[in-house]
User: What shape does this take?
Amino acid sequence: MDGIEKSFPGVKALKGVRLTLHAGEVLAVVGENGAGKSTLIKTLAGVHRPDAGTMMLDGQPVSFASPHEAQQAGIAVIYQEFNLVPALSARENIFLGHERARFGVPDRRAERAEAQRLFERMKVQIDPDAPVRSLSVAQQQVVEIAKALSLGARLLVMDEPTATLTPGEVDRLLAIIRDLQRDGIGIIYISHRLEEVFAVADRVMVMRDGEHIDTLPRQGLDRERLIEMMVGRSLEQEFPKARHAIGAPRLEVRGLTRRGVVEDVSLTLRRGEVLGLTGLVGAGRTELARLLFGADPADAGEIRLDGRPLALRSPRDAIAAGISLLTEDRKAQGLVLMLSARENFALPNLSHWSRRGFIRQQVERARFAHYIESLKIKLSHQDQTVRNLSGGNQQKVLIARWLEANADVVIFDEPTRGIDVGAKYEIYLLINELAAAGKAILMISSELPEVLGMSDRILVMHEGRISGEITDVAHATQEQILALAVGREDKAEKVEG
Amino acid sequence: MLPRLSSPPNRTRIQQAVSQFFSNYGMLLVLLLLCTYYAVVTLEEQNPRGADAAEALLDDLTARVPAGGTVLIATKANEEDRVFAAALAEGLRAAGYTPAGPVEGTPQDLRQALEAVAAQGRPIAAIATTRDNAAIVRNLQRQVTSLAETPVLTPASYRWPTFLRADNIRNVANQIVVIAIIAVGMTMVIITAGIDLSVGSLIALSAVVAAYLIQAMGGTEAGTGAMLLASAAAILLCGLVGLFSGFVITRFRVPPFIATLGVMQIASGLAYIISEGKSISAIPDGYVWLGRGADLFSLPNAVVLMILIYAGAHVLMTRTTLGRYIYAVGGNEEAARLSGIRVHAVLVFVYVVAGLLAGLGGIVQASQLKSGAPTYGLMYELYVIAAVVIGGTSLFGGEGKILGTLIGAFIIAVIQNGMNLTGVESYTQKVVLGFVILGAVLLDMLKKRGLR
Amino acid sequence: MPTFASRGILLLLPFLLLACGGSGGDRPAATTDRPVIGVSVLTLTHAFFQDLTAALEAEADAHGFDVVITACEFDIARQKNQVSDFVVRQVDAIVLAPCDSRAIGTSILEANAAGIPVFTTDIAALSEGIDVVTHVATDNYEGGRLAARAILDAIGGSGQIAIIDHPEVESVIMRTNGFFDELEARSAPVEVVARLPGGGVKDRAFRVAEDILQAHPDLDAIFAINDDTALGAVAAIEKAGRAGTVRVVGFDGTLEARRAIRDGQIFADVIQHPDRIGRETVQAIVRYMNGEPVEDEILIAPSLYTQQDALADPLLQESE
Assistant: This one.
């Protein structure tokens, strides 16, 4: 691809992007949200047509009028949202649209054998006849890759493939990618997670504001330099952890249980402390957070706040008690997308500036203006629909919401998921500030560097239970956490500080 | 995490405000255009009435009838014609004529009056009447030989859109008032991503219960207190029915469509049981005050009530915490709950409001018709939903404006009234209304696509 | 910036306006000098009212009137609106077949106040204090008595009978009154085992009849208060396999019912003469306009229509 340009009404999304990919090469494309990565992929995949520039495949100029044509040419894209039919089996999904048919009837046996072969090639065990619905996210991804391979793809584009995978699954995916690479398949790998980029890429391409900044070989490239190129300025460090005095216990949990998801969890959260909570997807972290917030009823156990027992029947009770929860899924559980940023910010806080049920809008605007300033929320005006904000700014609106609620205990569930590097950094600073102000913070995260970089103490969950605690964070490693996360307590050493 | 490519950063505030206005009240434009359209096509000859008519006729009359002659005034029996006759008689006297009569009433009354005048043998120089009555008078004079040649004079007509006549505008407002009042509650329900199919049946239930109670408390002799009590009880009952719907929906998680479909049948059945399938009309004349009276600047009382309800609901939805909660619950129930909003209480509230307003609508209907019957409100839920949808409220919840619904209701009323005035038959009216609803939904979708 | 929304509105407008104007071409203009009669009947889906309005229109035209015909289709509020619109248009006379005999009262008062004469056809208005020039209708009470005689004929003087009723309508109340009075007058040994409302429409009557047949295995006859009800009952009887054992007497004499009578499905009909009602109504209006006296009620006698009549009916021969 050379000099690719693409404009949308009002914006130029791609400006002269240049991209070269050799067979058997992994090219990582990195950049902040809005850098133009997705547009680039869609142009490659034939979803968008470039306004200018040329594309060459094996030395021949090509242009794709539709995703189908791109597919025919051997380009396959695996989007974040999979294109699978949940009710159909893995085999049926793989061969959907190009069934191995004999006399017009799909030849199940041939299909099953081929699916089996594809899975073996990737060293995974999946029952070809299992409905996709019943597969894990990682398995579904493998099905997507198998589908691409069955179409004879020579160029595989993967958009944030690891966003919802657990650390173990990420390792397996990276192994698959290396295998495919050895088979001569070119791979474009798009990810926010720089450690993966360093682990798998041959070359790294950096994009910013629709422009091609640079493409560099991985060797000799360091993390700080890469981040600087992505955000266009230098960051002192990725995790600006600040240490301060940790005070008295604020939230004490004893034997908290919700059958099937959270089993007998006890923990203590102190003033000024950032307690990291991690574990594999499905370990019960989010479920624990929901119990602490009163969003789901607990079957057993006790929650104490400043020594007094709390009965949480609803999030309303939790908010009244000074607990807040920044949910993992912003769009499904945090934001009301069609309302304005200001209205979203105000939702749990209306009582702060209403009298006899009437909202005093000037006060509301003033309060929100304060947070727009202090959190550097980027929006055109307060009434902008929150749907139209970037992920980072949406997250900041939600943080502003809970800051205004003035909670003493703040639970962050995946606070930086889907957020670009620059905004991540600001959120870390904010977490520090809150801790410095004496708030107790529970930070749930799947990103181990983040957990290690930001926590004062780390709890690891496995199958609904706390499987380990790490108090000497400074000397802990990802491997230790992983060991606890997969439940190998026997092998994991409990690191005492 | 996809970049929002189509929200261009270079849009100015003004452009944004304009497009905001369009997206909020674009339907207002449609309403105005409809009104303009019907004003143009109903531009026709109008018959002047009352004192204006007398004035218009006097000039013409003095020019054509020699001074001092006797002019017989003959009109229909109604208030405006009486004013016309009195003003004309006075004017004639002042101009030196001798007014005779005035005679008024049915053709039979007029005929007798003409015959009596003829029998007296007085020479009549001219007969003055209104344009409405001219055909009858000309017909009658042919049958009274001595008056057969007497000129019949009427005020000159003027051109004006029938659609824009004050009484027609009042008609439009009166005809939509029941649907418009109920649509307020429906807007709130739909903003919570629900639906209430029971409102039509509640009109019948409320009207029947009110009529039944008034009948029980003295029938046509019932006092004002009894009427108020009966109406309040009927409205409250409908509120309770709404409470029941809300309870079923929140407690047992029955989809609103199904829950209110059931309640719709229940309410309708109750209305039939209470009334034994007949209409109850033993109601004092005073009961029509709400539906037919006009005490404030000749605005119908029901329309005043409607305006008050819209004003109140608009304030509720835009200025209060409860209004904000209603939008939030409809936009994202889980996010609302996790923000500490009592989601179930909010949902129950909107169904209670919908029930109360449907009950009030039933009272207005009963007042307009001075009776209560279980057949009232048939299919009204569909008109109400149509008004809400045309008004721009999204059936998916979270979005909508109370004032948009008022516009939607008026669009329906104007189209129906306009088609009645232009003589479009009722089957065609249905087809047109159907297209209007589809058009509104289509517009809504275009709007969404355009703004994203 | 022209948003999609504004563009959408502009695109839709011509279409909307076209639609709203409808068949504006044939509107009976209030501007002509011919006097206008505004008509609002219960429904135009019944053959009865179709015949009535057709005859009314023809007769009115012959006398130099224009006619605007509307129907409320069982919605009294809609009828109220139609009358309001007639008042605004200042029609010269209003003819009503009320959807609700009592609730129509306030609308008639509105017309009275505007000095517009009101005539009712088929269904009377029963509110107090209203001024109706005259009521033109079938003598329904007499019709009910005729029906009772026909039923006694059909079942041989004794047995079980059921009535599918529609008590919301005054004319039907008259029919059933006449029916019961005649049975009583003859002290006939019959038992009325069921009396259920069928809404006067075919599908509901069908369901009601099915239930009645289910509950009363010894039923001999059904009195259906109009022809749609009768045809619904016939369908239910045939479905239950009891044709020939359960007889039906209907009311109205629509074409479809006449065919059913010829084919022996309905035993007999009390036939009304909607065309005569329509014509008599216009004649009453003409007399009124001429200042002649008009009687308070003009009753059109119904007659009984049996298979013999059907076999000789020219209407049926022409239509086949």
The interface with chain A takes residues 1-11, 13, 16, 319-322, 324, 327-328, 331-332, 334-342, 398-399, 452 of chain B (CB under 8 Å). Chain B is about 65% helix and 5% strand. Chain B has two domains: 13-40+164-451, 50-156. The longest helix of chain B spans residues 13-41.
